[in-house]
Write a structure and sequence with these properties.
By secondary structure, the protein is mainly α. Helices cover 57% and strands 3% of the residues. The chain is built from 26 helices and 6 strands. A two-stranded antiparallel ribbon has the order 1-2. It has a two-stranded parallel sheet with strand order 3-6. Strand 1 and strand 2 form a beta hairpin. Helix 3 packs antiparallel against helix 4 (70-94), helix 6 (125-143) crosses helix 9 (190-207) and helix 20 (484-500) runs antiparallel to helix 21 (508-520). The chain is globular. The chain starts with 5 loop residues before the first helix and ends in a 13-residue tail after the last helix. The structure holds L-captopril and zinc ion. L-captopril is lined by residues 1-2, 278, 381-382, 408, 411, 551.
Length: 647
């Protein structure tokens, strides 16, 4: 996810009433009557308040995520409570201004205030307090979540993920146990989540919306209804490509696991190498189209480097035999940190190679790059603007030496560079053009991590040049990018339904799996999972209350950004061969786009970079055209698709 200033930034940047003609209902009538100050003065005061409040709020949230205990949860929820109460006052006052006659920046700021919140909060102080306490508790429960067998032998998310990721070494049953084990962490969240939905919906209604899902859909400079249609349209563009990949993967799993390899045409949830089936990169050994053609074993190379760092430290210390047990633990930690720092600097060098600034020194001293051993933390990666002046930016990760983590660092630095690019905007404009833009910045760079780029940084051998190598390279990218698409959509399909009441608490889990089946074509092994489970809660963004459609949009937008930056860099030839590393022209255009922040409708910002005002998946299809043909060829004669997709 993005900022932990999320609460604040998102609370500040919402947006719909003015545009949508949605429902300024009676109950939503603002409490403030005649404006107490003119609109310009009001916006200036909001900006000053955000600037003053941000460091305190982000520090509390940072502690809440990096030292999970009762005290930090208390401080975090109190800070949020204070901020949300203030923000509710701002929203009420914002509604008293008539957009007519306002300067463009003031009108934009007021529009954002009225429409941007991921956590609409009730005005009633007792309910607001309850909401912020639940929010902190859900986040902490996820962060501290562990799978224990008979109360012992507990494994955290990193350890569970390792079992699933080892798709060759772990057995079907081991992976099933790990997958099921992780999902137990969410069972205690169910009651809190139900109450959370009631409370935030009340806040949404007071803002003038039907429910929280509608507020989320309002943040896109179009009506919530148009936004939903837009997301459906984009999914329609890419669905055939996903179905081909699903079909091919299912076939390979059936080859490997026999009857257990599929469930009514769907993929068993514990077999994709990932807890949520959102990234299938760990199935590479099974799905690699042409073995031995241009090795792309980035993980192997990273692990080797980490081992070499450790060997070096150990030899400097006079050999392992000379060290006490606790010194051995410490030296391992030091090797992890050195490796994580090296990986982060690699990512940084991509950005500086485009002409962007070096990260501030404090980035490396304040960030959490590796998992601390002495306490619970939220390991889910995130990037934080701790202030509004671009002086203190951090990431929080538990980096391990593997390819997925490396690309996640590039992703997180995308957020960080966005923060740095728009730091001179007024605080209310310090946000992505929309949230999908924020998620797409770093991922666009990841698309540029071609085999050629990976070779240039010494992670793979000189790439092979052949049709087989092209398909291998495309498959590698597709397992991350194409596999993700339906997942990116289904999470909020579930939450939109939960918020609007069409999914009731007694059907939370059933509805979750219906959507997983419909969009992703995955199913749990062992039959339907009952309502004693709360499987949505086992995915960070649900207890963390981070809207998720942003990632779906990002997976479309990043190909549009990529294509434009490739054009800017003078690239010729097929899109998928483009690597714009070290190209100043691409860097200049990207930075100029990022500097806009949320100061204007995203359509305008998109136009400045790409020439078009619409999100459009044709660049995704152009990129993957060779793989799509190849998959169709492989799947010939098979019956692709699955029953649930037709509903
Ligand atoms: O949550 C994230 C990032 C932080 S914004 C690590 N992502 C989504 C996820 O992990 O579910 C990146 C891709 C999708
Ligand atoms: Zn992100």
């Amino acid at each position: 996810m993005k900022s932990q200033r999320a609460l604040l930034a998102l609370a500040i940047t919402a947006g719909l009433l003015a545009l949508s003609g949605c429902k300024p209902s009676d109950q939503a009538a603002p409490e403030a009557s005649a404006p107490a100050e003119d609109a310009d003065a009001f916006v200036a005061r909001v900006n000053q308040t955000v600037k003053d409040t941000t460091p305190e709020l982000t520090s509390a949230a940072w502690l809440g995520a990096t030292y999970i205990n009762k005290d930090t949860q208390r401080l975090e929820s109190l800070a949020n409570e204070r901020w949300l109460a203030k923000n509710n006052e701002f929203i009420a006052q914002a509604k008293t201004y008539d957009a007519e006659g306002l300067s463009a920046p003031t009108a934009r700021a007021i529009h954002l205030l009225k429409t941007s919140s991921s956590l609409p909060a009730p005005r009633d102080p007792a309910k607001l307090k309850e909401l912020t306490e639940i929010t902190s508790r859900l986040g902490a429960t996820y962060g501290a979540g562990k799978w224990c067998v008979d109360g012992k032998d507990c494994k955290d998310i990193g350890q569970v993920s390792e079992i699933l990721a080892d798709t060759e070494g772990s057995s079907y049953e081991q992976m099933k146990a790990a997958w099921e084990g992780w999902h137990t962490i969410a069972q205690p969240m169910r009651k809190d989540y139900e109450r959370f939905v009631e409370l935030t919906n009340e806040g949404a209604r007071e803002m003038g919306f039907a429910n929280t899902g509608e507020v989320w859909r309002a943040g896109y400079d179009m009506t919530p209804a148009d936004f939903q249609t837009e997301a459906d349209r984009l999914w329609g563009q890419v669905q055939p490509l996903y179905e081909q990949l699903q079909c091919y993967t299912r076939g390979k799993l059936e080859e490997k696991y026999g009857e257990q390899g599929s469930i009514d045409g769907m993929i068993p949830a514990h077999l994709t190498g990932n807890l949520w089936q959102q990234d299938w990169g760990n199935l590479w050994p099974l799905l690699q189209p042409y073995e031995g053609v241009g090795s792309l074993d980035v993980t192997g190379a990273l692990k080797k480097q980490r081992d070499a760092i450790l060997a070096d430290l150990v030899s400097k210390a006079g050999g392992m035999g000379k060290l006490t047990a606790s010194q051995q633990v410490e030296i391992e930690r030091q090797a992890d940190l050195e490796m994580a720092t090296r990986m982060t600097k690699l990512a940084e060098s991509f950005y500086t190679g485009l002409g962007m600034p070096a990260l501030p020194e404090s980035f490396y001293t304040e960030s959490q790059l590796v998992q601390p051993r002495d306490r619970d933390v939220v390991c889910h990666a995130s990037a934080w603007p701790m202030d509004t002046v671009g002086e203190d930016v951090r990431i929080k990760m538990c980096i391990k030496p593997n390819e997925e983590e490396l690309t996640t660092i590039y992703h997180e630095l995308g957020h960080i560079y966005y923060y740095l690019a728009y730091k001179d905007q007024a605080p209310v404009f310090q946000n992505g053009a929309h949230d999908g833009f924020h998620e797409a910045i770093g991922d666009t760079i990841v698309l540029s991590m071609t085999p050629e780029y990976l070779a240039s940084i010494g992670l793979v051998d000189k790439p092979a040049v052949s049709e087989e190598a092209v398909i291998n390279g495309q498959m590698r990218m597709a397992l991350a990018k194409v596999a993700f698409l339906p997942f990116g959509l289904m999470i909020d399909r579930w939450r939109w339904g939960v918020f609007d009441g069409s999914i009731t608490p007694d059907k939370y889990n059933q509805a979750w799996w219906e959507l997983k089946a419909k969009y992703q074509g995955v199913a749990p092994a062992g039959g339907a999972r009952g309502e004693e489970f709360f499987d949505a809660g086992a995915k960070y963004h649900v207890p963390g209350n981070t809207p998720y459609t942003r990632y779906f949009l990002s997976h479309v937008l990043q190909f549009q950004f990529y294509k434009s930056l490739c054009d800017a860099s003078g690239h010729t030839g097929p899109l998928y061969t483009c690597n714009f590393a070290n190209n100043p022209e691409a860097g200049k255009r990207y930075w100029a786009m990022m500097q806009r922040g949320a100061s204007q409708p995203w359509q305008q910002t998109l136009k400045e970079l790409t020439g078009g005002e619409q999100m459009d998946a044709s660049a995704v299809l152009e990129y993957f055209a060779p793989l799509q043909s190849w998959l169709e060829e492989q799947n010939k004669g098979k019956t692709c698709g699955w029953e649930a997709a037709k509903s």
